[in-house]
Amino acid sequence: MHNFSFQSRWDMWMAAAALSLLPACSDGSTEPIGTSQAALQGANGISADRVIDSQWGQGYCAHIVVSNQHPSATTGTWSVALDVGPGAIFSSWDGTFSGSTGQITVTPQGGNAAIPPSGSRQFGFCASIPSPGIEPVVLSVSSDLPPMGSGVAITEYKFPAAIDAMVSPDYATELWASFYRPASLEAGRQYPLLVFMHGNHPTCGTGVNPRTDNNNQYATTGTCPANYVVVPNHRGYDYMAEDLAARGYFVVSINTNRGIHAASGTPDDELVIGPRGRLLLRHLEQLSRWDSGAEPTPPELGVDLLDRIDFDQVGLLGHSRGGEAVRFAYNEYRRSGSPWPALIDSPVSIRGIFEIGPTDQGQNGQRLNADQTAWNVILPACDWDLSDLPGMRPFDRMLSIAEPEPLSKSFYHVWGANHNYYNSEWQLADGNGGGITGCIDHDELFDPLEYGSPAQRETGRLAAVEFFTANVGADRDEAANALFDPAFPFPDVPYRVRRGYHPGGDAADSLLLEDFINPTGTSSYGLPNTTGGTLSVEHTPLSGHDPSLSGAWIHDVVAGSSTFFQSNWSSAGTGFDLTGYDYLDLRADRSWGSDPTEASFLVELVNADDTRSSAVAIDEFLELGPPPRGGTTLPTARIPLSSFSGATLASVRGVRLTFTTPLDGNSLYLANIRATRATTEAQAASGQLASFASSAAPPSSRARAAGTTIPEQRRIVAGNAIQSVRSSGADAVEITLTSAEFFDLRATNLVLTVGAERSIAARHPNGDLHTVQFLLPRAAFDRLGAQEPVRVDYGPGSSVAWDFGQLDKTALAP
Known about the structure:
By secondary structure, this protein is mainly beta. Helix content is 12%, strand content 33%. The protein is built from nine helices and 43 strands. The strands form nine sheets. Strands 10-13-18-14-19-20-21-22-23 form a nine-stranded mixed sheet, with helices on both faces. A hairpin with a 3-residue loop joins strand 36 and strand 37. The protein is globular, with a radius of gyration of 29 Å.
């Protein structure tokens, strides 16, 4: 056995490298992979893009492309800040390097200094690494050119991984984020801060166009396997962050790859939401220390943050699990006894929360809300990861929460949008794993065979820009909330959105008239409701919605002028004074079915003397066609009270819905009838909307021909194996499963089902997503029969499942 020392092996390798004229590294032990980190951008139109040329077990070669988009050529110098971590650079070219390990700065060498407009220069290097998978990170780029006034600077900060007991005591996490800002900062100005957080996704990917993200090693080790790159999950929202930075915001997009993406949930926090939210608060603490001067701002950020951040104007954006996590951070900061207000140097006022396809699992048995701040959620109508759209549930709950001031709550149900493509780094459609090639009964905003969708991203960009412009910033334009308020027409864009809206506040802003919380036939105020003609009305919980929400299911309707449902909230001869309100709000949806006909009914107000106002057709304010994929989100109609001629608004006792139009076998759902005030400012002109990138738009997203059905669950059988069944201490059994088709990391957990027993306690050894280990409580294992079927899926509604045949209990190893 040869026993070479590390140094001798190193010397031999160096000699071989020199002979083979690195960086070609073409001795058969390396493979070119051509993968790049998303480019960083300086304040003056200069950018740096990292490309990994080759990797091998103990090293890599890379080059950096420095590009100039400034109208002038660089005349003196440029510089790029790199972090090579524990790696050691042993060969470099076309650049002057300040060091060989850790954080270093590279400046030009010779003729590289001058970069003409629209031109680029390159430098490169090769480095040895102590363990496979370590990669360099570009932190910033700058040049001697003057700032471009309307440009955006993008830099990064990244601190070494460490166990942070306040974030999670069980695994190491990193403070790693991209930082976006206006290229030119105004003297003495503080800038509003937006903080983004992505969702659950693998941390290592391989290949290009598309990159396949099928490994999670970085989450535990901080490295990826050879010929893999770290997935920059946090850079998937550049398209939003750059737009917002150009409008005067500081934007921080957090990377949660390390630790959190490897963590197994607990019964109190199944989706590891708490550590995500606490990591966000730790970032706010760090930013506050730079802002207060308690710590100097790292030079790679390219700007001194001393007294530059307006912590009174903070907004949060989260996607998938990151959506629920930003809601957690908001609640954790406000919680009585929370340590975070003392740790964060400046008091934080979170003015708005924007979520995209979020989870809503809850922590410690509690569901999280976003009361006392503005809130909006995007619900992707073609979401195959969270097909039940749990982001509706906070909206359902918050309709019943009184607030000291009206701060709107809204949902934005985007037809044709899937879960993944709001993050440009998630390059495969979420339905693909289940063999689903698109949307059900409506057109896609994406091609499932392409990687990403500019058209879908545009729906997110417009909504995010309008939301934060309206709600965050000392000079915010509240009229931009008109995009979310159905009292205003939706802009002329080539996609379809159904909107739900609640103005927030207390009864002075939103007066409950009917919530269907009492038994069928009885109003929310304990009075008998009235019906006429032939129809059935049932008060019932509504599928897919929060358990707290009740609604009316109206079915078996025989249309006619005397067929009606009337909700009575005041006795005859009395009524509610609605003169201080502007709208009658109600939520309604049609049942899913093959008939594309839009449902309609007439709405009348009932005066105290039982006379009625003029009738208003609901279809003037709400489209009631078949909901996409059967998802009854219950969008909001806002009918001006001024539309009801003949109404005595000082004394209204009820509302009548009359069904003169046949429903043709369909049924209706009705919920949350309110009298509300106008709280959204009217826009001076439609041009106030954020500019629409028409070049990114498809023809439209619309209803398809009727009859499309939800596909069968895809079942994977070939290539699966039960690798081992072992005792794990006295109280658990570890079951290790392998598959040729990898187990993706999604918003929902993998679920093991063995017979009648289930477990979500899962991990992927060494980040290998082709292998999963579940822990099953020993008591549950003992309840199993001698032979039980084994299945893995993503829980109810999963589009894919792995079948592993029968588990033989006698195979249990000690």
